[in-house]
Amino acid sequence: MRALKITAVVLVVLGLLTLAADRVALKMAESDAAERIEKEYGFSERPEIDIKGFPFLTQLMSRKFDAVDVRIDGIDATGSGGRALRLDGVRGELEGVRISGDDWDRATADKADGKVTIRYEDISAALPVVKVSYGGKGAAGENKVKATVGTSFLGQRLEESLLGKVSVVDGDTIRLRATGVDNLGGVPGLEDYVRDHMNYNWTINDLPPGIRLTDVEVRKDGIVVTGSGTDVELGDERSAGK
Questions:
Q1: If DSSP codes are grouped into helix, strand and coil, which group holds residue 216?
Q2: pTM of the predicted model, to two decimals?
Q3: Which residues on adjacent β-strands are paired with residue 181?
Q4: Residue 232: how many CA atoms within 13 Å on its side-chain side?
Q5: For 148-195, what is each residue's pLDDT tens digit?
Q6: pLDDT tens-digit profile of 52-90?
Q7: Helix residue ranges per DSSP H, 76-147
Q8: Peptide bond preceding 188: is omega within 30 degrees of 0, i.e. cis?
Q9: Contact indicator for 198, 220 with CB cutoff of 8 Å
């Protein structure tokens, strides 16, 4: 009986040690992956990596991970006229991630979904002389954004506002376009001036092959952009394709 108790204790201890080793290896792998992504894509901040599934070591030996969640801050989308749009809180969910390469430097995800909420203050910071905010609902019930610009005319301070629409084009570009007039100030040429400063494109150059932007949703707290893809290439294969 005493021997059985000792054996049980040993098994429990071994199980705890195995679990601890699994968790330590997991954290090391997440840290290494985050560092590699930061360096390869040139992000200003290190991503957060969360590898799902248990046990981790079994997935590690098979070089295939059930699911991986990624959060990235500090991505810059290249804009018209060289003005970048900062993207924070980019969230990605990868499924069926397969690692390849002698240095474990390439990977392919069976499926990937992601989204980012772009704050209106970040959009305003990327546009010269224009302040962007939530514009309410349009005639068809869709949510709109509003762009407001202030100017001086005959010694008076005037503001002109236009409603606008946000969309995705070509799978990698966020487009902002003026669609109507709100509170027309009656100043000659001001409407065209606002339109010229509101119509902007921002292109995300570092999307991995296989990922495409698919939809945008205008909300009161910002604009949510979603994307998805299958057989998404990550790592050196992406770099080699440039």
A1: strand
A2: 0.74
A3: 162
A4: 22
A5: 876 666 666 667 777 888 899 999 898 888 876 555 555 666 667 767
A6: 887 877 878 888 889 888 888 877 777 765 677 888 778
A7: 120-126
A8: no
A9: no
